[in-house]
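Budget justification note: compute hours in this period were largely spent on complex prediction jobs such as the one shown. Inputs:
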Amino acid sequence: QKEVEQNSGPLSVPEGAIASLNCTYSDRGSQSFFWYRQYSGKSPELIMFIYSNGDKEDGRFTAQLNKASQYVSLLIRDSQPSDSATYLCAVKWSGGGADGLTFGKGTHLIIQP
Amino acid sequence: DGGITQSPKYLFRKEGQNVTLSCEQNLNHDAMYWYRQDPGQGLRLIYYSQIVNDFQKGDIAEGYSVSREKKESFPLTVTSAQKNPTAFYLCASSQQISNQPQHFGDGTRLSIL
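Corresponding output:
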């Protein structure tokens, strides 16, 4: 059974601080890792994706991947109230092709003004 | 604008009725997907299609059917065999190349009358 695990939260972070969201996955051969943001009642919106070990930065967001530890994280710097949402971690398993993603249940992030 | 259009936004099903959810994309993506999301849960893959006239079952295909007669369209039918259809249904698409991120439509909320 291929699984993606996230702490459901809520994770409460003061405005302006760094929010750190974590995700672990079960298949060591996984290829691709995605972070989506989902506001209540809305569809998921792609925030970041990462394929290689290390860090990938895009504006206030940094994705970190450690394949040896089967761990991927998302850092949000200078957190804003508009960052309050559920963050979904998604993993594409090895095997190639355009098959589906496996999602974690999401971490509910609250940025306190 | 390029994107993924799902309709209707809200749908109600009577007992014993089949209903069809529409998904159209103008992104020229080869691959399309259907996911189901239940409250407080991650997304679960129902069906996916990598190319016209071909589709594959996902993790929870029972009680659902799809077709892919055109590249732009991937409708999902929720049949009467699906005993617990109340959920948020999300359609996504991606380029055929492996590792490409999936982008989502706005979703359809299905409820039982």
